[in-house]
């Protein structure tokens, strides 16, 4: 992740107004010198979620949820750490200056977002208020897209004049490199500068927080050059393989209800959101891939509905997308649509009530898959049934979760009416197990990571008000006592900051991390509750478990060396003495006087 200067992080910390951040997402009510709300992290009837005026942390006396503005965004909106920090910086007008050690590779994201937002406003104005945009507006009206829809989603129009937007943005003192990097300006071989989009209806593409990061331009006249849709090219803001169209409108419901509805088209997606299905997303510009799946997994999705077009291409897409989710242990339901129909058409012709009822009659993924393959395999033929079964078994065995594999094989045996033992039920191949082992510490259960995250959570979320915790941790634990590299690094940063008298909050310490594990470990720290009144007791317990874990591992290493049969008699005897001495030295937590 980018390394930001201490000065800019300190400024951000000073500027953050926690009630302002939280009130944008839940209903905070003033109560004396504090604010109260129904806790968003558990079900309750009386408000126990408290934010004290001037404090930088919230606390729930019902479920012990506790944290700062970053923790709130990460837990409530399922943001990554970097995304939360940058979102807060943008909200409170703080420029996050990169550390001198980090190479400046181009325009800042803040400037790029400014350019994209200005472009969005320009396109929207041109659609509603220009003579040229009238034809585009009439086309949208014929498609059943009304003014409310257009204004809510800021649909726009890019005029035929190829430098109209360029002139506007240049008048705002935005440079050519900024406009090129944002994907708004294209240069021809002769050096001519032109708007990237022209003569198209424009649909803004937003990130999860609602910032415009790209556009999808749809042609509405046959003579317009190019394909039906042209999307913004890859930019520092816009990564097609990760961007979920419609997520900013659906994120809150998806995170709360742990479900998502996936469709193909952008108009399909926006139409569904407009009609109240605000857990809908679509892929962006490319086939729905692992990056899109990961975005939904990060939001805690447990169930996915696929409502793809009612044609062969839609069915094939459902097979591929469903497999990606099933692979990660996510339950998939396919919502079959009538032939040659899409969600947009069905909503206009049959209404939201019909679609809602249709969503209640989905087909589970495996039944859908077998039915799809049965169209090309004769199940009345032994060879046909064998070919279909082998094809599905191969797909199932590539999934990453053994229970999902086992139960799906059992269901497959029932669907194709063959004995379970013939397709290996109860004999999940070791390749699946080995894959789970490789995922240990990332997607599997990692006891070390859980234990060490508990330690960091106590220090970061309760340590600022309890200096005694710092002293106890430092007296008992060095960074090399931890096993998980990213936890080890974060603890070392914490100790160093404490020794120097610098801020030891998570914002300052985690901003010095690099690598892919960063967001995961910070999310782990923020995702579980802590009872502040029991912070010292929890710290002592966690330290004791870490010390005893290391003590037991050291004993086990000595034992393995003794039993290896590779030692001389004197070496084995010396190790045996060490083992006996270590056995008597059961570690206890030291509490400095």
Structure characterization notes:
The structure is a single chain. By secondary structure, this protein is an alpha+beta fold. The chain is 51% helix and 10% strand. Strands 1-2-3-4-5 form a five-stranded antiparallel beta sheet. Strands 13-12-14-15-16 form a five-stranded mixed beta sheet. A four-stranded antiparallel beta sheet has the order 6-9-10-11, with helices on one face. Helix 25 packs antiparallel against helix 26. The radius of gyration is 28 Å and the shape is globular. About 3% of the residues have low confidence.
Poorly predicted tracts of residues: 429-444
Note the beta-strand portion.
5-15%
Mean pLDDT over the full residue set: 86
- In whole angstroms, the N-to-C terminal distance is 39 Å
Percent in helix: 40-55%
Rg over alpha carbons: 28 Å
Inertia-based shape: globular
The secondary-structure class comes to alpha+beta
How would you name the oligomeric state of the polypeptide chains in this document?
Answer: single chain
How many beta-strand runs?
Answer: 16
The main sheet comes to: 5 strands, antiparallel
Number of helices: 26
Order of strands, main sheet, comes to 1-2-3-4-5
List keywords for this structure.
alpha+beta; 5-stranded mixed sheet; 593 residues; 10% strand; 5-stranded antiparallel sheet
